[in-house]
Amino acid sequence: MIYLISWFDPWRWHQNASAMRPHGMKVIGLFYYSDSGESIPPINPNLTTVTKMRTTSKKLLLLAISILLLGSGCAVNKATAILDPATDLSKIKKIYVVKFAPDGREINKIIAKKLESMGFSVETGSEKPTNVDAVVTYKDKWMWDLSMYMLELTITIREPGTDYPMASGHSLHTSLTRKSPEEMVDEVINNIFKQGKQNHEK
Q: Could you report the per-residue pLDDT of 97-107, keeping only the tens digit for each?
C-alpha cells in the first residue's frame, strides 16, 4: 500500500490528487510512501510548489496578525472641547443630566457628582426637563483588552427645550493610556468649562 502524507488540509489534497493517483493509493499529504518505507515523489510536481506558496502565505498572515496586535496596543490620546461663541457657561446654575439609555454603569451619576462638586445644582434621570438652565447628555463607548475599559466619552451641554448643543467635549484613550470613568468624566467636563472660560475672557 502507498500513502501520501500532508501537513495541510487532508481533505482538499484528497480531492486534488484523486484524479492523478494510481488505484489503491491513499492521499494523506505531500509525499507518497510505500509499505516498505520507500518515499516516492508526488505524481504532480506542482504539489511541492503549492506547498511552498501556502507556507509563505501562512507566514505573511501571521506577520499581518502580529502587526495588528501590536498596533492595537499603541497609545492614542485625544481630548477636545467646542463651545458656541454665544454661550456663556457662567450663567448656568441648574443642570439636569439625562441618562444614556444603553448605559449600564451609571455614568450619569458620575457626571452629576462632578458637576455638583463644581457648585451646580444637579439632578439626573431619563427625562429632559425644561425648568433648568442646561441639559447634559453623554455617550460612552467601551472596549475589551484583558478587561473592559472606557475608550471614548462625549458630553454635550444642551439648551433646554430646543436641545441645541451649546458646548461639547470628547475624550478618547486606548488601552495603554486608559482612564477610569471618573477620570474620563473629569477630563471632558474640565475641558468644556476651560474652553468656556477662555471664550468668556476674549
A: 999 999 999 99
